[in-house]
Known about the structure:
It is built from 13 helices and eleven strands. The protein has helices spanning 13-26, 77-87, 96-99, 131-135, 137-141, 145-148, 202-209, 248-256, 314-326, 334-339, 391-429, 472-481, 483-501; strands at 48-57, 103-104, 113-124, 214-221, 234-242, 260-263, 280-290, 300-307, 368-374, 445-448, 454-457. The strands form two sheets. Strands 1, 2, 3, 4, 5, 6, 7, 8 and 9 form a nine-stranded mixed β-sheet that branches. It is extended, with a radius of gyration of 30 Å. The model is unreliable at 130-196 (pLDDT under 50).
Amino acid sequence: MASTKPKLEDLSKEQLIARIYELERQIPPESRRPHTVHNPFPFAQHPTRKIALKFSYAGWLYNGLAAQSQPTPLATVEQVLFDALVNTRLVDPEKGMDGCGWSRCGRTDRGVSSAGQVVSLWVRSALGAGSIRQKNQSVFEQDDSAFTTGLDADSMSTLVTTEPSSTALDESLPSASSPSPPLSPRPETKLDTNETKQELAYIHMLNRVLPPTIRVLAWSPVADEFDARFSCQWRHYKYFFSRPGLDITAMRDAAARLIGEHDFRNFCKLDPSKQIENFNRRVLGAWIERVGDDHGEEELYVFNLKGTAFLWHQVRCIMAILFLVGQRLEHPSIVDHLLHTSECSSKALTSAPIESKPNYALADSLPLALWDCGYRPEDVTWQTDAIAQTKQGVAQDREKTNNFWFNMYSIWTHDRIQTTMQMYFLRAAERFYPTPSASVDRGLLRLNAGGGVYRHSTRYTPIHELDRGERAEVANEKWRQGASGQRRITKRNTKTKNTDDD
């Protein structure tokens, strides 16, 4: 007769422990795989070179261009690009953006896009001996403040910058009136020019890991002293808008009055922490043209602004005034009055100067794009990835080029179809909600702010009658006497004292 197993509740403590040990011995041993140790990438064993990258991005999907020290609701373009550089092992993540000498041409705000933004930095290279990176190692371990001074104050380039962007040019943050000191050149990296060797395919490597809304377009070898911000000669911005209800002729008249060097303090957002005292900027060109290929029923136009240096929000402020002129709420001469900031300003008028900015609303950021950044021909040579000197290599390069074009075309087609569908949704709605007649809007003003945004009002207040902000001199002095200003002065004095002690 088979023996029955005792009940657990009948077992003593010692018997229970013995039972547990018996059951544990019946458990098959786990197959232990050897732990894989990933050795850090040996950046010090690879040569480096300085390059410039030209890239585009859809600004409405990001929290602006510049990487931030604090968390942001959306990713920033720079952080996504830097992560791609890290993933492709082109830069050392331990050194960060400062360690690779990162410099941006301009700073664009949230919502602002670019078709030709530029950054310069040091990256890994396939050319040269491995010892070259070691020779430069001491430079990367130094305090990189010399390489990044003023990078967050992109409003003013000593050379010619063009634009802020709400952004990089229009939205380049304002900087101090005096230019930042020039960057110290890094030690020269002698690259191997052996024709049998090829440089890394920077564009393909980065676009392979970047989201489709950020595309690297070209790269250029640059001199060690090249700086994407300070070497820039001009920036060109575009602002797109639809025509309905706008007098394009009047807007062109107003835009033409911007050309030349003027005091633009009434066309920017004042930031006292930047302590700007000189608001003079030079506009090289300002014109409006029709967009050649509009696929809807409404005519599309684009405002072009090209200049050497710009203030914070300058482009969007200018566009806000142009919209008021286009809606016949202001005369084109309002531009002259806003540029007449003192008795000795470039716009000598008989009326009283407007010494501080009237509180008018900004134009929307969505239609604004940094179109291009200009450099001297001897400073940059834009190129795509090199073509291998084999039939197979040529075929592979053509395939990469074709894929790049088709990826961009695919995004454009997708968005175009969505736009067309929205137009037909509007047509379907018009069966029940006809287009309002002028009489319906009588007594209600719809102020065009760009990007499909309208501000409603029952009465328009002319620019001359609006409340005005503080004069720059007053705002700057208040900031200096405040807590933030005193902290900066203390920090500066401490740094000066330490330098003297050395």
